[in-house]
Design a protein that fits this description.
By secondary structure, the chain is of the alpha/beta class. Helix content is 50%, strand content 17%. Strand 8, helix 11 and strand 9 (275-288) form a beta-alpha-beta unit. Helix 1 packs across helix 2 (50-58), helix 8 packs across helix 17 (401-407) and helix 14 (335-349) runs antiparallel to helix 16 (360-379).
Amino acid sequence: MGFLIVKRILTHIACKLVKTGDLTVTFADGNQLHLGDGTGAPVHLRFNSRKAERAVAFDPNLKIGECYMDGEIAFEEGDIYLLLETIFKNSRENRTRPARWVRLIEHLRRIPAHILDRNTLRRSRSNVKHHYDLSGALYDLFLDPDRQYSCAYYENPSMELEQAQMAKKRHIASKLIMSRERLKVLDIGSGWGGMGLHLARQFNARVTGVTLSDEQFAVSNQRAREDGFAGQVDFRLLDYRKLNQTFDRIVSVGMFEHVGAKHFGTYFDKCAELLDRDGVMLLHTIGQSEPPTPTNPFIKKHIFPGGYIPSLSDIVPSIERSGLVITDIEVLRLHYAETLKAWRTSFLKNWDKARELYDERFCRMWEFYLASSEVAFRWQDLVVFQIQLAHNPQAVPLTRDYMGKDEHAPHRARKASESAKKKRAAAARQNRRA
C-alpha cells in the first residue's frame, strides 16, 4: 500500500509541474506516466527501485541527484541535463511552488545550518580541501589551460572557453584600474594562480595570492617559478583573515561563495582594513537575483560544504557597515551558463579518464553538479555579481567608459620593461633545466 501512495505523490508533483516538454517516467513496477505537450527533446526517466521513488517523492532537491549518483534512476532517452532543464523551465514558466512538505524539509534544513554554518579558520580549510584538493588531473579534463574555475566572459557567443576566460581576466583588470606599474595586488582565493599571473604579466603588478588549498598552493607557485615570476608573485597557503598589510588593489574571484553569510561582516571589514585609502577592489561572486534562499542541499552536501550563494540584499549591508563604498555593480547573466556548458561538454568527453581517477559514482555526481548548475543559471535566479569597491569614490573615474577602453586596447596594458622580461625568461629557462 505504501508504494502506491508514494507513486500517487510523485504523479501529483510531476503533473502539477510539467506542462511543456516531453517527459516519460517509468516506475519500478513498470507502469509509465507521460507528461508535457510533446515539444522539445524527449526524456524518459526510469526508477530502478521503490526506494528511489520514495526518496525523490519526499526530498527531491537532494534525492534526485543522490539517486542518479547511485544508479537508482536511469534514462531510456535523454540524460540528467535534459531532465533538469525540463523541470527548471517548467518551474520558471509556470511559477510552480514546491509541494508543502518539500518546503517544510527545506525549512527544517535551515535550523542546523543556522547553527553549523560557521566557517571558522579550521572549518574553512576543511571545506576547501573537500573540493579543491581533488586531483589536479580531474580539473585538467574540463577547465581551460589556465585553470580558470569561475565564470568566463563571453564577449560574443562564438568564443571558445579559453578566449572567454582571457576576456574575463581583461574585464576584471579593467575594473581594477591597473593604471601604473608595480601596484601591490592581493588576490583573495587565488586558485591555481591564473588571475595573479595575468596581472603580473600584463601590468607588472606585485601580487600576493592566498588560498586554503594545498593543491592550488603547490601548482600556483610552480607556475610562478616556471614563468619567471617567483620574486614578483607570492602565493601563500593562508586564510585572508590572517593578513596584516595593505594593498593598492584587491581582487577576489569565485571565493566569496565560500565565506558563509555569518562571516560577510568579517570579510568586508577585513578587506576595508587591507585596502589602501586610495585603493580599488573588485569582487566577482555567484549571486541570486531574487531574495535569499538556502543553498541547494545536493551542492552543499556533496560539492561545496559551507557554501552559500548570496543575494545583493545579503551583501550590501555588510559593505555599508565596513566603510567601503560601492562604485560599480555589473550583473553577468548567462555567461556562467555558457561556461558550465563548456565544462560539462569537456567532462562528458573525458568521462573514462575521470572514472580512472575516481569511479563511476563520482562521475555521476560531477555530471549532476555541472548539469544542475548550468540549468540554474539558465532557468532560475543564479547570476554573477561584479562589485567594485573603494574607500574614496574619487579613486575611480567619473564615468565607466574607461573599462571598455582599457579592456579592448591590450596594447595599453602596462608591460614590464624589456630587461625585466629578459630576466624572467632567463629564470624560467633555468627552472625548466632544474
